[in-house]
Amino acid sequence: MNKLISTYKNEGTRATLRKISHKLKSIKYPSGEMSPKIDMSAIPVMPQLEDLIKADYIHQPYVKPEKLDKDRLNIAWVTPPVGPGGGGHTTISRFVKYLQSQGHRLTFYLYRNNTIPQSAKEAQDIFERSYKLNVPVKEIEEFQDEDVVFATSWETAYAVFNLIGENLHKFYFVQDFEPIFYGVGSRYKLAEATYKFGFYGITAGAWLPDKVKEYGMEADYFNFGADIDIYRPKAPILKKKKIAFYARAHTERRGFELGVMALKIFKEKHPEYEIEFFGQEMSNYDIPFEFTDRGILNKQELAEIYHESVACLVLSLTNVSLLPLELLVAGCVPVMNTGDNNTKVLGDNTDIVYAEAYPIDLATKLSEVVEREAISEYAEEISQKYQATSWEESYKKVEEIILREVTRV
User: Where is the WsaF C-terminal domain (predicted)?
Assistant: First the structure.
């Protein structure tokens, strides 16, 4: 159990579930003895069965209520169990903090999607400690007196659909196209169905509105930003012979294997370059070249890596990562896979080096970056161009969307 808890803290929910699944499959039973029956409620990352049964969006659709005559709202966010430092909760926390500063009343409600057991108190402690949020966390069963509620993942969308409130406006905070987290099967179809629930979508970036609109879902989006004060270089940039890799082996959409293969090719051509992995602790992985394992880092530690590294390999096979704009502010060249999921959000930005999601092309583009003349001077130029890339306009836009959809004021 201690190992599982450690995995959850360091690698997140999905990695923990994979280890549990692997452990169960490895259990050997005596010859002739029946193996235990599979408990359907234990299928990893699923809504509660009673919520699935109740959420009849076909015959009993959600009807958007009348607009409210108020401009300070009670806004609820339904969250799955919380881990420290997760990208999804980091983004949610940004907007929660801003909405709170504007006079709205914010509350989290914890929804257990049959993953890691967690109490509302434990979740609140993590929000306070890891996300610097002073927002109450309650059990979903305590839900009441809210004007607005956000689903924050496909499992929580089922709970939100079933919440009752005469004037309750339901939104969906969409940070990725979650069906493709799975193979085409039951979870894929159940996640896909949530875009038909009738909620208004607010999405991370411009790629997702087109995806969810295929299901008839209305949506608007916010642009990504960066924490300028953290990632802006504090002194003239002096690059080392170093590149970085956003290594998330337990998050399949981050293309870990593609990255390792590309880096092996790159390292053979440029053995003088140090390669630093960050994003996950890598002690259990046999990597076919010398590298430095930095594990999970805080923002200040990330800024140090970005300032020293010439380039960072950051792969995003679904919605784009938060990293590219942070890297540009820091004067580090992002090398990324091309595709609408990235270019629709970041644009055909000439400061980002796009490559095919293929090891040889990724390695070639990394080599071109490190072979550039006057690398440190170029890094300074990039950094200066992105010093206005803050989150502030996105905070304002999200509040404007909520007020536009919910209030007459």
Answer: 241-366
